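Reviewers of the previous submission asked for a worked example of the structure-prediction workflow described in the proposal, so we include one complete record here. The input consisted solely of the amino acid sequence. No template or homolog information was supplied to the procedure at any stage.
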Amino acid sequence: GRYRGRQTAAMTAAGRCWLGWGRAGWAGVRGAKSKAAQRAAKKKSAQQVTSYKVEFNPVEVPWLADSAQVSADAFLQTVLSDSRYAMAARREGVQLDMLKSVAPAVFEKLGRGITRSDKFETQEGIKLNKTFRRGLSDVHKATALAHVVIHAKRHFADALANEDSLKKLADLRQPHTWFAKARQKGRRVIMHLGPTNSGKTHAAIEALRKAPSGAYCSPLRMLAWEIYDKLQRVWNVPCNLKTGQERGTNEGARHCSTTIEIADLYKPIDVAVIDEIQLIGDDFRGWAWTRALLGMPAAEIHLCGDPSAETIVRRLLAKTGEKLEVREYKRLQPLMPVSTPLPRNFGRLRRGDCIIAFTRRQLYEIKSEIESQQNLKVSVVYGGLPPEVRRQQAELFNRQDGGTDVLVATDSIGMGMNLQIGRIIFSSTSKFDGNMQRELTPSEIRQIAGRAGRYGSVHSSGEVATVSREDADLVLAALSSEPSEIRRAGILPEPSKLNAFASLRAETPVEASLGGLLELFEDLARTDETQGLYFVCSLTHMKVVAEMLTGSGLDLARQYTFCMAPIRAELPLVPEAMSAFAQMLAEEKDVPLGLDEGELNSPSSLEDMQKVEGAITICDTYIWLSKRFSNFFEAVKAHKLRREFTGLASHGVQGLRVATSEIDPKSRAYDWSAAEERRRTRIANNFEHDRSQDDDDSDIFRQLDEPIGMNWERKYLNDFWYDVAE
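From that input alone, the workflow returned the following structure tokens.
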């Protein structure tokens, strides 16, 4: 006990971290019979700790060089998870978040020269390593913390000194103070609330076109094109176009149609329209709507969207001191849900139907099945297609003579497309959102369903149907429910702030990847937790791109710019192209596109279609980068090849045929005969296997004799999931 007490005191003094009394000290205090004796024992123990002066000298510890990361992980898990040690580190002027970030590098240095006390045995470091593997006692936790804190302060002083600056850049509690021009404007904010097809956006665009100057902030690149075209062609209002890939300029234009992520927050204008304001609560893109709402320097702001956004907008404007004027709209034509599910093989389709699915394979399989079994032509629309092809497919569907009869689409039609849809048919009500497979939210269902029976179309009303009873109940509940309030707005710092964060972090001697930098930012980011106004948007997309850039040699600031590019990392060729672009730019060389004419043919399979879409994405990314690094990217060839690949995509959409999968009940007819044969074989095999243990064979033979269609729900689902398992 006395030895342990002295050892604890020595190690605590070594790290200059007060972690508590040594065991002998506590025992002496508890064993004293009087208060005076307790005070004396306490004073003696304190003197024992504070009087132990230690000088540190380097010594080689080979095991740490071999297992630096293991040691660092053990340290982080066992030491920093204890609040006592976190408090001790703070008292030494070292914040926990920064200590976590430098711990691996500290242990790597410890492997080359660990500091120790001359009064300690030279084997102390080796003992410390052993304790990592069998669990740390308080004594060795104190020793480990002492080593890490001392080394962090000695060898990583710049990193630790920069922590306050990093935390200031990651402070997101008052974003309304970031936009001085908007705060000086005295803005009038008008909110147009209503369901899809209620005329709310039309009213806002009317105000925009009558204004001397203005901007339309679009949620989609294709919708920005549509408003750009309509302002000029229909209303004769000169307008500029600004998206990530395109720039359209007209002499004398004082209006601009732009995607919301790159909206200009510096040029004062008269009217700004921010469409689909309910996306302010989106986990990935919500920051762009928060930024536009708080920062647009317009005399008049028009917000269009779902009533669910009203509360959060009011709370944000309370911070800016601006008042909100609300205008409510009703749907212009009725929308009627159909309670009876349609056949799963889509046998009762009619002209003007739109079938909703959520994967590329489902879309093309449904298209192939309809065209092979019915005398109907089909258009296809999904987000992965180039905007030009989506517009072409929409025009074919809207054409009354010589066009297509049925549309198969994803939820991408929920915003910004004027379509002659009479009936929406959900083949499924669940989708993969990039993180997980989930059910559609009521807001998403209303947004998609509202595309049926659009005002001004050939249909006087709209219908919504499904192909399963469960989906029908879900859709009916969504359409009849009140919108749930959006409680928080997404937030990220301005690009200049995040760039400064990257630059400041890059100046420290601690080598860090961009992915690690983004994780550090998420750890340090602070929002207004007391009022719950904001949340930090997901940086998943940026982390995926950062992973592609690992080992490229590109500096952090340029890596950050790459991460903002609108790429689709899941497509073929895209990760390799991004890595090649980064390596060439890091070497300050001209960056080739890496694609050539005639390299791809018209798609004849889904894999071919994915390659074409990947090539288009590479061209788009190259063009996007050429606007940021014009000295190294020459976009002429990229524009030319993009037109070629877009033509291939257009041919592929029209001519691609995909065989229908046997086991996808959510979107296609099921092969009942094959399922029945497999069912009988399995039952018979089970019967043979269990015969010696089962005296009653009646249930086995009853199952064999019962047709598969007798109890549809049970047998259909059981057989489907068995096939999935196989």
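Residues 606-626 form the longest helix (21 residues). We consider this example representative of the routine output the project will generate in years two and three.
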